[in-house]
Each structure stands twice: as structure tokens, then as C-alpha cells.
UniProtKB/TrEMBL annotation:
Name under which the protein is recorded: RagB/SusD family nutrient uptake outer membrane protein
Top-rank taxon: Bacteria
Domain (SusD-like N-terminal): residue spans on this chain: 64-224
Localization of this protein: Cell outer membrane
Family in the record: Belongs to the SusD family.
Domain RagB/SusD, residue spans: 350-475
Principal localisation: membrane
Pfam family, one: SusD_RagB
PROSITE patterns: PROKAR_LIPOPROTEIN (PS51257)
Span of the signal peptide: 1-21
Organism: Seonamhaeicola marinus
Keywords, sorted A to Z: Cell outer membrane, Membrane, Signal
InterPro entries: SusD-like_N, SusD_RagB_dom, TPR-like_helical_dom_sf
Keyword Metal-binding among UniProt keywords: no
Length: 475
């Protein structure tokens, strides 16, 4: 993925649609080259597969008309939980921490468009598999495309609720498909089907491309979300039998990239803007396209200090230039410490190469315990205890656990996966979001209400639909 150059021709001319960031499905063709003309063999279809991962990377700039994909994901997830906030409590970014997000918020619209860009590029690949004469290779490309489409839809449905279901390449005139919100249950049917196909068609060759274990792990999380616990347990155990292992040193997870714990990550490389990222610089002070976002709340500091063990020292630090504030350190740009002022980096911090981890083995172990807990309040099951204990042992926590409660598991996920965009989804899946976020909001003078669990449908989409597209309650 990172070692291959993305094919600009594919991104700009394979169809009338080049990106959801520019009036999704609306632009007039500006080239005579179409997907039918471009894709003639397996090598060209693979460029289409690589382009899907390019959409996940996002564009490393400050232009909201470009898709930024996972580079913006923390705003919509961590900053809407009790884990992070802005440093200054100002601007559009502060809407997330105060729970007063507007439908016109550019970040909300950008992420929505980014996920549909992934979906569009996946559909392009699926529509052109017929030119691949090797049946095994065609099955592999289909599996990769469906894995990515499923992951994008999983993000969309959890953040926005009912969304349009686009499972094929459509024309600009197909506004009914583009602007018809489909029930989440139907979206989940597609997600499960796509991930099942991915499991059947992939192996575990890659860490920054789709793999069987990645598909199994993501499907396990989907099944947990749907309350299908036995299916989730079997999927976790399949991953656990696939040779992954915890890194002995927690810090190495993030700076010894593509290690034994990584199951799937979005790959980046430093120094080259087309393959680098800016989000880790944004979390610092005075660097990046913005600064002082995704700063650490006192609430999560208490949790990490009391329950994090060895993880705490690697998860956050005092802002060197303002010690009353705290920064995330899991993704220091290129692993540098930024110097005493928190913003002087040897290399350009805005061109960082840190991979973004989507799924790692510790997450699977904790999901395994969650699946065995099966929505109950506690378990003493030996297999659940073993998985749970492995994560705690790596953190240097001395206690041998003899019972796992639902709240203890949620807390363990919080301190293990802090700042990895999991907290909000965990609170919702565990049925604790209302109580936790209401209390956090009251304690910090925020404005949380139940309707804030979903983001608004971007106002731009509603405007383009001429009012046919409905808005989520509360917006």
C-alpha cells in the first residue's frame, strides 16, 4: 500500500464521481476515460484496490473540501466522549466537546463524505472484477473491497444512524439511492455479508491492507454491537488462534509499527505529504493545521492514574508549555518528544508517518471477554478471565482477577484503548453512554442530551437532496 504509488488517473477519471468531497455523485465528467475503459487487467484492478486505502489515509492539508477520513475521526469519537476536549474551548472543534454540534459543521460533513469515498472506490473495484482472469485473485480483490466497504459503513451507521445504502456504482441521476436513508438493520445486513465474504477470501499477509484476522475482528465488534455474543466469541477465538501476540512494552505498539499486536492499521509515511498525516501534530501545542485539539480530560487522567499501570506514562503527558494542560502521547509525531516547548520537532511534525491503528490484539482479547460476558453484569468464566488477565499483566497490574464485571471491563477498555477512538462506541455498546456522558456533562458544564449520541446528517446533503433527506432528532 504505502510502497505503491496511487494512480491519480483512477482517482480523477474512472467515473463521473471522483470523491464525495465535491457534491457526491454530482460532478460533470471532465475526462473521456471511464472505469470501463481504464480497467483491463488484474494489475489495473489492483490500482483500484490501492486507491481505497488512499481514501482511508485522507488528504494531509487544511482544505475542508478535501477528504480527511481517519485524520479527522478523533473529533467525532474521542472528543464526544469523556476522554478528550479542545485546549481553548473555541471554534468549530469545540462543538464536539460541548455537545452543540451543528449540521453545518465542516468536520461532520467531511468525515461523512470521506466514508462514502471509501465506499465508492470499493464499489468501483467490485464492478470491474470481471477483467481479472485469475479466480483466486478476483476473490481476493472482492474480499478487500468488501472489507473496506463494510468498515466504512460500520463507522457511518454508528455515527449517523440511518444512512444511504450505496452498494454499487450509481449515476449522478440516481438521487433516490443517494439521498434515501436506509434503516440501520439493513446497513448491518450488508456489513455482515461483506465481512463474511472478506473472511472467506483473505489471508493474513497484510497489516495495512485487509486481512482475514482484520475481517474477523471487525465482524466480532459488529456482532457485539448487534448482541450476537456467541458469534462474536467464535470470531475472537479465530483471531486468537492466528498467531498475534501482545507487545511486551506498551509503548512499542505505537512506535514499532506493524508489530505482532497490530491486526489492521491505516499506513502512513513521514515527510511526503501524499502519504503522511497531520493529526498527531494537531494534538500538540502550536504545530499542525490547528493546535490544541484532542487534549486529555481530567476524568480520563484519573482513570489512567488509578487503573492504567504501565500504560499511564505512555498515554498522556503535561503540555511542556502549559503544564495545567495534558496532551496525548500515543501518537507523538514520528515518536519525537517535541522538545521542552512541546512544538520543536527535528522533522516536520505536520508530515508525520505514524500509522493509525484500527484494530489490535489487546482489543480482540477484551472483546473475547465481552462476548463471554454476553451482556450480563459479571462472569467468572476461565476463558474470559484468561483474556482479560493477559491485558492487565502486560500493564504490570499485580492483581489476579477472579471475576469480571461489566463496569470493570468497560474501564479496562478505557485505559487500554484511550485516545484510539473506541471510547464513545464502547459506552454505547455497553449501554452506559447515557449515564456516563450525562454525569460528565453535568460535572463540566457541557450540554449533553440523549440525541447527541448521533451526529447530524450534514446540512449540505439535506440541501442537495432538496429536502428529501431527513435530519436526525435534535438538530
Amino acid at each position: 500500500m504505502k510502497q505503491l504509488k496511487y494512480i491519480a488517473l483512477l482517482l480523477t477519471a474512472v467515473s463521473v464521481v471522483t470523491s464525495c468531497s465535491s457534491d457526491y455523485l454530482e460532478p460533470v465528467p471532465d475526462s473521456g476515460i471511464t472505469a470501463d475503459a481504464y480497467f483491463n487487467n488484474a494489475n489495473e484492478v489492483e490500482t483500484g484496490v490501492i486507491a481505497i486505502y488512499d481514501a482511508w489515509q485522507g488528504v494531509n492539508d487544511n482544505d475542508l473540501s478535501n477528504n480527511h477520513s481517519v485524520q479527522y475521526e478523533f473529533y467525532l469519537t474521542e472528543m464526544r466522549s469523556d476522554n478528550t476536549r479542545t485546549k481553548s474551548q473555541e471554534g468549530e472543534a469545540a462543538q464536539f466537546e460541548f455537545y452543540n454540534v451543528e449540521a453545518t459543521n465542516g468536520i461532520v460533513g467531511n468525515y461523512y463524505a470521506s466514508m462514502y469515498s471509501v465506499i465508492f472506490r470499493s464499489n468501483i473495484v467490485l464492478e470491474n472484477l470481471g477483467v481479472v482472469t485469475d479466480a483466486n485473485l478476483a476473490a481476493s480483490f472482492e474480499a478487500e473491497a468488501k472489507f473496506n466497504r463494510a468498515l466504512a459503513y460500520f463507522n457511518l451507521v454508528r455515527l449517523y444512524g440511518d444512512v444511504p445504502l450505496v452498494d454499487k456504482v450509481i449515476t449522478p441521476l440516481d438521487t433516490e439511492t443517494q439521498y434515501t436513508r436506509v434503516a440501520t438493520s439493513t446497513i448491518y445486513d450488508l456489513i455482515v455479508s461483506d465481512l463474511t465474504t472478506a473472511i472467506d477470501g483473505l489471508d493474513n499477509t497484510y497489516k495495512t491492507r485487509a486481512s482475514r484476522a482484520a475481517a474477523q475482528g471487525i465482524l466480532a465488534k459488529v456482532q457485539l454491537t448487534l448482541g450476537n455474543y456467541s458469534e462474536a466469541q467464535s470470531l475472537c477465538e479465530a483471531v486468537m488462534a492466528s498467531g498475534f501476540s501482545l507487545q511486551p512494552n506498551f509503548n512499542d505498539i505505537f512506535y514499532n509499527e506493524r508489530n505482532s499486536e497490530i491486526i489492521f492499521a491505516i499506513g502512513y509515511e513521514s515527510a511526503l505529504s501524499s502519504d503522511s498525516q497531520n493529526f498527531s501534530a494537531e494534538w500538540m501545542n502550536g504545530v499542525g493545521r490547528t493546535a490544541g485539539v484532542n487534549y486529555v480530560t481530567d476524568d480520563v487522567i484519573t482513570a489512567l492514574t488509578d487503573f492504567g499501570g504501565d500504560r499511564t506514562q505512555y498515554s498522556f503527558r503535561n503540555d511542556p508549555s502549559q503544564t495545567s494542560q495534558n496532551q496525548v502521547t500515543k501518537y507523538l509525531p514520528n515518536g519525537e518528544d517535541g522538545g521542552a516547548d512541546g512544538k520543536t520537532f527535528v522533522n516536520d511534525a505536520t508530515l508525520a508517518g505514524n500509522d493509525w491503528i484500527v484494530l489490535r490484539y489487546a482489543d480482540v482479547l477484551l472483546m473475547h471477554a465481552e462476548a463471554i460476558l454476553a451482556g450480563g453484569n459479571e462472569t467468572t468464566d476461565a476463558a474470559a478471565l484468561a483474556s482479560f488477565q493477559m491485558v492487565r499483566d502486560r500493564a504490570g497490574l499485580p492483581t489476579t482477577v477472579t471475576i469480571i464485571t461489566k463496569d470493570a471491563l468497560l474501564l479496562e477498555r478505557r485505559v487500554e484503548l484511550a485516545f484510539e477512538n473506541q471510547r464513545l462506541f464502547d459506552l454505547i455498546r455497553f449501554g452506559r453512554a447515557e449515564a456516563v456522558l450525562s454525569a460528565f456533562s453535568a460535572a463540566n458544564g457541557l450540554g449533553y442530551t440523549t440525541s447527541d449520541l448521533l451526529l447530524p446528517i450534514p446540512q449540505r446533503e439535506i440541501n442537495l437532496s432538496k429536502g428529501a433527506m431527513s435530519q436526525n432528532p435534535g438538530y
